[in-house]
Amino acid sequence: METVRGVLAGSQLPRLETQMLLQHVLRVPRSWLIAHDTDPLDPQAVARFQRLAGRRLRGEPMAYLVGQREFMGHEFKVGPGVLIPRPETELLVETALRHLDKPGLDAPRVLDLGTGSGAVAISIALACPRARVVATDVSVQALAVAADNARNLGAEVEFLCGNWYEPIAGQPRFDVIVSNPPYIAASDPHLEQGDLRFEPRGALTDGGDGLGALEIITRGATSRLRPGGVLWMEHGWDQAPAVRSLLQSTGFRQVGSSSDLAGIERITGGSL
Length: 272
Known about the structure:
By secondary structure, this protein is of the alpha/beta class. It has ten helices and nine strands. The relative contact order is 0.11.
């Protein structure tokens, strides 16, 4: 009968990925795998592991196989209908929270456009409970995942279905608008590589040069932000100059970009 040690030895996957899949199948922590590495495993569990391992060998993202991904210290449910949260996007959350910490913002309003799994909106709501957080997405499937995540993590977020600003018509203005929109150019070969092959195409690219959604969000923000409000957007590795120019031409002040841990200008924003 197969054991943890035997599965680890026979797997074609990296050891860490094998352990993660075993933990998922057996519903145990990594410490259990170490302490019980010679215990016989249920054949059905081994079969399930092998099916998942086969899918991983064909390139499916680990986050989809185990159904979750860590972001800002929280576990978020993810699936094929939503973009997988990535560490570099934590910079967007951290920047928004710094603005929310400023004096005078007693009950700030925050808008997250294209929320996907809800990782950004929920992380802000959890870190700043006094904020009123609203999140929009055009995908009903993504909003269902986001609502589950908010419920599981105990976050108060208002989720609205529609394209960008459409669902918030008539709402008061916001102090902070954030977005991680589709910004990869349709011609970018990376769309056919790695995890991106399996993620929803509409969450990755606007179908054009990658600047279309960024422009819509920027131009729409001027009538949705309060005086002194800020807009911050994630973008591609080479798009910061174009996004800064866009913000400046739209009337934003104090325009600037911030780099992620890899030294790449990852987000750009400004204030009104």
